């Protein structure tokens, strides 16, 4: 296949970037999207040009590192996958593909297609944990009975890989889906209830401080999330937050 | 408590509560308007009651005005903050691939409704205030029906009504159910709330439009 690429190039955080055109011949349907970029980069290197920087690590959909906005959608056109799981068979000969970094004020571009997602780390640090004594007498989590429904919901929330596609998809660059998944994975379990009210208040405060937008309930995040995190989590976080704030 | 007022979630709850309050008010408003088609006398009685009852005039009316102001000011504040949250725009952004138009354009449908409210205020509220407090006219419990029907004589106003209620319908189509999600309610009742929202968002504006067209087509002949 012949593929026309329009890729965001930006030298560093303080430079102004721009879209640069590349043409690729001989792209195979079985190539992954990132392999296609690898080949383009090898080509650029052999020509003595600076390769395109993009984030990736596991290349099997579990680490949440890869992060590209492809033709106006985070992780590309297919549902429930990350960019590293996207294959070129989702495109056809002669297609033009626009590749941009995830855009949000809270996710500044570091270089080319790589953005700084430390804002998510700081939200996590604000409360995305439980305090347990790990001196060797830790109670085994499996010895605490938990309703199946809650265990499943907590597990589904915990599937969030922190990729930031929810922010990238949202017209408001809101981080509500991510934050709510991290709040929910604890809120539904007895171990998490102990610090539940401080957790939700601190995490929401940090989320706001980072400069993410507000949620308009468009549902774009849920559609684009590679892990299928549900909007129910946002409602749960709002409930938890209101409850915690009213209690004081 | 102070952190509550500054938080994104609290802003959304303010939006939701003021929106739901307006939704309730709209149901009351359409009921009264409908009597103008069914029985002019009932319409006059109700309008007169609303216009001269102390509770309505000094408590409910100010609450309503504050409700509208809170809702649209907060809507604009949120819009500004949300635009700032993505300072560099995408070259290509496929919003339609993952969210309905109505949910992405609440500010547009909302601002059209606001413009309409401006005209509506001028037409009815400014008129009432002038009639009652500036010109100090005596109470006349029979004037409302004629005044209302005459408003719909010009075709431009009738058309403006139809367009505005069309946009209000779109605003409610997303807004009504969305307000429950904002307040943290997403459970087994959510599908029913979503269905009810669609019925409400279509039926209520349609009845308003019907009343406007009805009066336009049936002018009072002197
Ligand atoms: C006065 C002009 C209006 C403006 C400028 C306006 C603006 C907005 C905006 C921007 C939102 C979305 C906010 C967000 O979620 O980010 C919204 C939500 C909403 N609006 Fe309005 N609106 C107006 C009038 C109305 C009226 C007349 C009604 C009802 C009869 C109404 C009912 C709602 C509801 C129920 C919501 C949903 C709240 C939520 O999602 O939590 N609005 N409005
Ligand atoms: S909620 Fe989904 S889209 Fe958002 S960071 Fe987690 S996995 Fe990625
Ligand atoms: S590289 Fe790990 S999820 Fe894509």
Secondary structure layout plus pairing:
The complex is a heterodimer of chains A (248) and B (222).
Chain A: E1 3-9, E2 18-24, H1 33-46, E3 69-70, E4 73-74, E5 96-100, E6 109-111, E7 114-115, H2 118-125, H3 148-158, H4 165-169, H5 176-187, H6 190-193, H7 196-209, H8 220-224, H9 232-247
Parallel strand pairs in A: 1-5
Antiparallel strand pairs in A: 1-2, 3-4, 3-5, 6-7
Chain B: H1 2-6, H2 8-38, H3 40-52, H4 54-84, H5 101-104, H6 106-134, H7 143-151, H8 155-182, H9 190-217
The complex binds protoporphyrin IX containing FE, iron/sulfur cluster and FE2/S2 (inorganic) cluster.
FE2/S2 (inorganic) cluster binds at residues 56-59, 61-66, 82-84 of chain A.
How would you characterize the overall build of this protein?
The complex is a heterodimer of chains A (248) and B (222). Chain A is of the alpha+beta class. Chain A folds into two domains: 3-111, Ubiquitin-like (UB roll), CATH 3.10.20.30; 118-247, Alpha-helical ferredoxin (Fumarate Reductase Iron-sulfur Protein, Chain B, domain 2, Orthogonal Bundle), CATH 1.10.1060. Chain A has nine helices and seven strands. In chain A, strands 2-1-5-3-4 form a five-stranded mixed beta sheet. In chain A, strands 6-7 form a two-stranded antiparallel ribbon. In chain A, α3 packs antiparallel against α5 (176-187) and α5 crosses α9 (232-247). Chain B has one domain: 3 helical TM bundles of succinate and fumarate reductases (Up-down Bundle). Chain B contains nine helices and no strands. The mean pLDDT of chain B is 94. At the A-B interface, α7, α8 and α9 of A face α1, α2, α4 and α8 of B. The structure holds protoporphyrin IX containing FE, iron/sulfur cluster and FE2/S2 (inorganic) cluster (FES). FE2/S2 (inorganic) cluster (FES) binds at residues 56-59, 61-66, 82-84 of chain A.
